[in-house]
Specification:
about 25% strand; binds flavin-adenine dinucleotide; alpha/beta; Enolase-like, domain 1; 3 domains; FAD/NAD(P)-binding domain; five-stranded parallel beta sheet
């Protein structure tokens, strides 16, 4: 007999697995279908984020940062080390263990919450309008199972964008999965794309000793970030971290030779250049993944870039079909995917009870962004260039980590925090940070903005001393030109 569910979630990344758990918490009979297999061919829940994204990249960033500290910074504390070396396979094994613990953890969470987990590719193939039922095929190798559900949540994520003239072999030409599995420090590493993934992966291997060259097509570095932060980051990454970053380049060809990869490109002045490296990471963005989902057959609307079209509540054009995460508009970030998953689950649960709960939509204007380089970069809300373009009058307050006691004690004094507030109302419009642990500090700015705080609100809140959070406090004071420690 066909198994029947209230909700079928397709995809078990941070969008899908969180949606499935929240649906189950709300009493909905839920199935989550996912096709991911790890490199041993074993089903592995958690999608890109847990398997080859957020979690493994942060594990390697932490290991390489510890190595870099030991090599270059311990000496400032009087700690002398002799014969320091890096065992890359141990670092990779540690990363793999963390991934295994987390992906296995989702299987346990599914069990605990009574979410049915099915491994295989989910394809929508029929909608029975009269009884409001979606039929879904789940294909795992030669085994095919048919299930049915009243509601469908599509959370099929994204896949790496490929360059047209070269294919990834994950030996010399690597995508993000390959970049996370290198077992020996390459002497020369090339990275195409200076986005978040390119910068994070380039940083890992630079810290371990690679000569890293990053080639970026955009003429400006980190276009999504506030311009002042991007300029500061480029200065620190090139002068202090030793990354070579070239913007405004045009890649002409990539050849894999026996011992190396050769990239021919035109630089920003249109001069022909050649880059020879041992390995090349291609990190030119990600594209929404709807392969094999049956979207065209079912008439699911997608935009010209392949994203499933949704309204502010993540509703698609098909009845009782929602879509969340990387496969829809908005930033490709795990926390955005998860919050959409929760919102959709709550919407479905209230719809099942006969009333629409339209208070649960995700606020796409207040989503924190983090880049886990050293120093870290984080922001929320509008950049200065966006405010200028929109003709919004604002006041800016800024404070450097150099003048903060905790940053000095840590020996991490690069960077600053900037608060942007409306010139008339003082409401905070954006907060931009570059410096130590700003991935953690940004949360305070997110809370402030969600509660429509003014810069004065932040300025009047007591911050512990000595702490990095005092830099945000002083930046808020600086909006009113009354910073105390500079
Ligand atoms: C190297 C790297 C580092 C990153 N670091 C961060 C970070 O630090 N912070 C952050 O917020 N984001 C980060 N991201 C982005 C983050 O991973 C994504 O935004 C997030 O995973 C999107 O979640 P999702 O649920 O939409 O999709 P995904 O995580 O891509 O999951 C989709 C799942 O659906 C499955 N699937 C697809 N089609 C089908 C089908 N038809 N049937 C069954 N299953 C299917 C896929 O196999 C996959 O398991 C990083 C990404 C990469 C690549």
């Amino acid at each position: 007999m066909t198994k029947s569910f209230d909700v079928a979630v397709i995809g078990a990344g941070p969008g899908g697995y969180v949606a499935a758990i929240r649906c189950a918490q709300l009493g909905l009979n839920t199935v989550c279908i996912d096709e991911w297999k790890n490199d041993q061919g074993v089903a592995s829940l958690g999608g890109t984020c847990l398997n080859v994204g957020c979690i493994p990249s942060k594990a390697l960033l932490e290991s390489s940062e510890n190595y870099a500290r030991a090599a270059h910074k311990f000496i400032d504390h009087g700690i002398k080390l002799e014969g320091l070396s890096m065992d890359v396979p141990v670092m990779i094994t540690r990363k793999n263990k963390i991934v295994k613990a987390f992906t296995g953890g989702i299987a346990m969470l599914f069990k605990k919450n009574k979410v049915t987990s099915l491994h295989g590719r989910g394809t929508l193939f029929k909608h029975e309008e009269e009884n409001s039922i979606w039929k879904i095929q789940v294909k795992n190798g030669d085994e095919i199972e048919e299930i049915q559900a009243e509601y469908v949540i599509i959370a099929t994520g994204s896949t790496p964008r490929q360059l047209p003239f070269i294919s990834v072999d994950n030996d010399r030409i690597l995508d993000n999965s390959g970049a996370l599995a290198i077992t020996e420090v390459p002497k020369r590493l090339g990275v195409i794309g200076a986005g978040v993934i390119g910068l994070e992966m380039g940083s890992v291997w630079r810290r371990l000793g690679s000569e890293v060259t990053i080639l970026e097509a955009q003429s400006n570095f980190l276009m999504a970030a506030d311009e002042q932060i991007a300029k500061e980051a480029q200065k620190i990454f090139t002068r202090e971290s030793g990354l070579v970053i070239q913007t405004g380049v045009e890649i002409k060809s990539i050849q894999v030779e026996k011992e190396q990869v050769v990239v021919d490109y035109a630089d920003a002045e249109a001069e022909s250049q050649k880059l020879e490296v041992d390995k090349l990471i291609v990190a030119v963005g990600r594209i929404p993944n709807t392969a094999g989902l049956g979207t065209d057959e079912m008439g699911l609307s997608k935009n010209e870039r392949g994203y499933i079209e949704v309204d502010e509540y993540c509703r698609t054009n098909l009845p009782k079909v929602y879509a969340v995460g990387d496969v829809v508009r908005g930033p490709m970030l795990a926390h955005k995917a998860s919050e959409e998953g929760v919102a959709v689950a709550e919407m479905i649960a209230s719809e099942k009870q006969g009333h629409a709960n339209e208070s649960v939509k995700v606020n796409l204007n207040i989503i924190p962004w983090v880049i886990y380089t050293s120093p870290e970069i984080a922001w929320v809300g509008k950049t200065e260039q966006e405010l200028k373009a929109a003709g919004i009058a604002y006041r800016a307050g800024q404070f450097p980590f150099m003048a903060n006691g905790r940053a000095r004690a840590l020996g991490e004094t690069s960077g600053f925090v900037k608060v942007l507030a409306d010139a008339d109302t003082d409401r905070i419009l954006g907060v931009h940070m570059i410096g130590p642990y700003v991935s953690e500090m940004i949360a305070e700015a997110v809370v402030a903005m969600e509660f429509a705080a003014s810069s004065e609100d932040l300025a009047r809140i007591i911050h512990a001393h000595p702490s990095l959070s005092e830099v945000l406090h002083e930046a808020a004071l600086a909006v009113d030109k009354r910073a105390l420690h500079i």
